[in-house]
Structures are given as structure tokens and as C-alpha cells.
From TrEMBL:
<dbReference type="InterPro" id="IPR004838">
    <property type="entry name" value="NHTrfase_class1_PyrdxlP-BS"/>
</dbReference>
<dbReference type="InterPro" id="IPR004839">
    <property type="entry name" value="Aminotransferase_I/II_large"/>
</dbReference>
<dbReference type="GO" id="GO:0048472">
    <property type="term" value="F:threonine-phosphate decarboxylase activity"/>
</dbReference>
<comment type="function">
    <text>Decarboxylates L-threonine-O-3-phosphate to yield (R)-1-amino-2-propanol O-2-phosphate, the precursor for the linkage between the nucleotide loop and the corrin ring in cobalamin.</text>
</comment>
<dbReference type="InterPro" id="IPR015421">
    <property type="entry name" value="PyrdxlP-dep_Trfase_major"/>
</dbReference>
<protein>
    <recommendedName>
        <fullName>threonine-phosphate decarboxylase</fullName>
        <ecNumber>4.1.1.81</ecNumber>
    </recommendedName>
</protein>
<dbReference type="InterPro" id="IPR015424">
    <property type="entry name" value="PyrdxlP-dep_Trfase"/>
</dbReference>
<dbReference type="GO" id="GO:0030170">
    <property type="term" value="F:pyridoxal phosphate binding"/>
</dbReference>
<dbReference type="Pfam" id="PF00155">
    <property type="entry name" value="Aminotran_1_2"/>
</dbReference>
<keyword id="KW-0456">Lyase</keyword>
<dbReference type="InterPro" id="IPR015422">
    <property type="entry name" value="PyrdxlP-dep_Trfase_small"/>
</dbReference>
<dbReference type="GO" id="GO:0009236">
    <property type="term" value="P:cobalamin biosynthetic process"/>
</dbReference>
<dbReference type="InterPro" id="IPR005860">
    <property type="entry name" value="CobD"/>
</dbReference>
<feature type="domain" description="Aminotransferase class I/classII large">
    <location>
        <begin position="22"/>
        <end position="344"/>
    </location>
</feature>
<keyword id="KW-0169">Cobalamin biosynthesis</keyword>
<keyword id="KW-0663">Pyridoxal phosphate</keyword>
<comment type="pathway">
    <text>Cofactor biosynthesis; adenosylcobalamin biosynthesis.</text>
</comment>
């Protein structure tokens, strides 16, 4: 059975009959420029830290985050990936009358909410994509909503003021900004600065995607101190390991890596999108502000996924974990031009396209 999450290289390598590291992974949306060399060097340097228990307050990383985002350190809680913090979000949301999720939604929301028997209601993305009023009108202060901005898997971006309209209802609003770092500061729609003002706002963030640290597990939440103190008491005191703390501080300090990523992403995403658009059976459903593209096809993508693994050692993300999308969608990460060529070669052969990958990638914007 295919994995429910992207990046399951062991499963994919068994189908491709190769070692996991020989696969070209388009399924997990990780920054191809990472992990930053500064982080790798800091990890080498910091190896001695594995001897002792890690700092349960994650002091150095909390200070670095507070300085980077101009936040009060008391409003920060670091976790073993955003996924760990989603568990505690699930617990708080379960105490609300109803939790609204925008479909399709990241499957881990379901896991965290089911764990605490939350009462879940859904609203389709198409109803709130351009106007959150349809959702705001449903919300009471005793409700909660989890919004993912930019949205996985479509890459849709809500403006800061749209999110604020939800927060103003008084409902508990969780904004999962796991992919927000990919937007340069000038276009970022982060609502981190609103946390001070709104006790009902919880902002969830991850270092996994932007810094390519999926295996280390590192995320954080920004919310009111009273809420975070409660979560701190419930959880494992050492959930964030010593090396993750070292890596996090180094990553936040690496401004050149951040700039490089911002310069790389938009042109790389546009070139890949234009190339995919040339393949007749494929369609990109909406403009993406993330480091991934959601593609729809005329038939099930499962045979395509298998073909790309068996013949090209390429892994794309089927969207079975987003039940509203079904089998006719796949998601690909934006990577480097040479990786895009390989993807386009595989897709071109599968769909019988005669144009070469480099020609596809050189299609100019209209
Ligand atoms: C929208 C979204 N939020 C959160 C996460 C979890 O991130 P982390 O690796 O920090 O647990 C993911 C990972 O795929 C994600 O796609």
C-alpha cells in the first residue's frame, strides 16, 4: 500500500529496486538547496551535545527565534517538528465546540483531532479561497479553525487581512505556516505579529521544509504564554533533541541561505509550471505560493507514479491522503533545473510527448 505521507523513500525504493538515496524525491516538499552547509557544520561541531539531556526550555533557540521574528520569548514553544505541536493543538481544539478544517487538508490535522475526539466540520477550499467570509460567518468564539497558509497541497495564499478576519471572530484560530518561510519578507503574509494582540491565535511553524531538516524534527508554535505553559506540562520534557537545537540556531542565522532560497524559488517554480503546462493531459489547478505544484491529470496517477519509480527512480506525491482530491492529482516539489529535466523526461515518455525536457523548460512566459 502506498504511504499516506510524502517522502517515504524506503517504500518507494523497494518499487524502484534501488537504494533510497538513489531516488529523486519530488514527493516531500523540501528545499533542494538545503540543508544549509552552516547547519551541517554546526552539527559536526555540536556532536558533543548528545551526551547530556537537552535543555527542556530550548533557551538558545527560543532566543534566536524571538530575535529573528521580533517576538516575546514567552510566546514561543519549540517542538519535535510541527507534528508534535499539532498534537497539543488537537487537544486545545477538542475543547472547542467545533473545529473547522478547509478541505483538502494536511492529514496530520485529522490525526491530532481524532486523538482527542474533537468535533470536526469541513468547508471546501473553493468556498473560502477568495473570500474567507463564508467561513468567518460560521465561527463562534467557542469554535476553532485550522488554516494552512500557504495551503498544502494547492499553494494558495491568504492575505494577512483575510486571516485577521477569522481571528476577529473570537474563535480559536490555528494558522499552520509550515511553508510561509518560502515567501520573502516583502510578500510574506505571516500573522506572527498578531499573537501579542489576539489570545485566540496560534501560529504553527516548521523548520523542516525551508531548511530541509525533515529527519531532525524541528518546529515551533507562537501563542499566548498561558497556553504554552499548559502544553509544556503535558508533554515529554525532552521532546526536542540537542542536535535539533544546535541546527535550529545555525539555520536561523544563515541569512545567505535564506536569500538564496528566495531568489531560487519563484523562477524555478514558474519554469516548472510552464513546462508541465505544455504536457496536454496535465493541468496546474491554481497559482502556487509554496515550493510545490498541484497537478491534475485525466486518469489515475497511481500507474504514473509506479512507472516513474520503476523506470526513472523518481517519486511523485499521489494525493490519496487528501480524499477530496482522489486519484487524479499529484503534487511535485520545485527543485533544481536538472531535476526538473529528469521529471519532464519521465512524464514526457509516459504521456508520449515529443518535445524534449530542455525545450519544455525553455518555454518563455507569455
Ligand atoms: C502543512 C504542513 N504542516 C505541518 C507539517 C509537519 O511539519 P514537521 O516536519 O515540522 O512536523 C507538514 C509536513 O508535511 C505540512 O505539510
Amino acid at each position: 500500500m502506498p504511504p499516506r505521507h510524502g517522502g517515504n523513500l524506503v517504500w518507494a525504493a523497494a518499487i524502484a529496486r534501488c537504494a533510497p538515496e538513489e531516488l529523486l524525491d519530488f514527493s516531500a516538499s523540501l528545499n533542494p538547496l538545503g540543508p544549509p552547509a552552516s547547519v551541517v557544520a554546526a552539527l559536526h561541531h555540536g556532536l558533543g551535545a548528545i551526551r547530556d539531556y537537552p535543555d527542556p526550555a530550548c533557551t538558545a533557540l527560543v532566543q534566536a527565534l524571538a530575535a529573528t521574528y521580533a517576538l516575546d520569548p514567552d510566546t514561543l514553544l519549540v517542538g519535535n517538528g510541527a507534528a508534535e505541536l499539532l498534537t497539543w493543538i488537537g487537544r486545545d481544539c477538542a475543547a472547542c465546540s467545533r473545529v473547522y478544517l478547509v478541505t483538502p487538508y494536511f492529514q496530520d490535522y485529522g490525526r491530532a483531532l481524532r486523538a482527542f475526539a474533537a468535533s470536526v466540520a469541513t468547508i471546501p477550499l473553493d468556498q473560502v479561497r477568495h473570500d474567507v467570509q463564508a467561513l468567518a460567518a460560521k465561527l463562534h468564539p467557542e469554535d476553532a479553525v485550522i488554516l494552512n497558509n500557504p495551503h498544502n497541497p494547492t499553494g494558495h495564499l491568504w492575505s494577512r487581512s483575510a486571516v485577521q478576519a477569522l481571528v476577529a471572530t473570537g474563535a480559536t484560530v490555528v494558522v499552520d505556516e509550515a511553508f510561509m518561510d518560502f515567501l520573502p519578507p516583502a510578500t510574506s503574509q505571516t500573522v506572527l505579529p498578531y499573537v501579542k494582540e489576539y489570545p485566540n491565535l496560534i501560529v504553527l511553524r516548521s523548520l523542516t521544509k525551508f531548511y530541509s531538516l525533515a529527519g531532525l524534527r524541528l518546529g515551533y508554535v507562537v501563542s499566548q504564554p498561558e497556553r504554552l505553559r499548559r502544553w509544556q506540562q503535558w508533554r515529554d520534557p525532552w521532546s526536542v533533541n540537542a542536535l535539533a537545537l544546535v541546527a535550529g540556531v545555525a539555520a536561523l542565522g544563515d541569512r545567505p541561505f535564506q536569500e538564496q532560497t528566495w531568489q531560487w524559488l519563484a523562477p524555478a517554480r514558474e519554469a516548472l509550471q510552464r513546462a508541465l503546462d505544455q504536457i496536454p493531459t496535465l493541468r496546474i489547478t491554481s497559482p502556487s505560493h509554496g515550493n510545490f505544484l498541484l497537478v491534475t491529470t485525466e486518469a489515475s496517477v497511481l500507474p504514473l507514479q509506479r512507472y516513474l519509480l520503476e523506470h526513472h527512480r523518481l517519486l511523485i506525491r499521489d494525493c490519496l491522503s487528501f480524499p477530496e482530491l482522489g486519484e487524479r492529482y499529484f503534487r511535485v516539489a520545485v527543485r533544481q533545473p536538472s531535476d526538473h529535466e529528469q521529471l519532464l523526461r519521465g512524464l514526457g515518455q509516459y504521456f508520449g510527448v515529443s518535445i524534449s525536457p530542455s525545450q519544455l523548460l525553455n518555454v518563455k512566459a507569455e
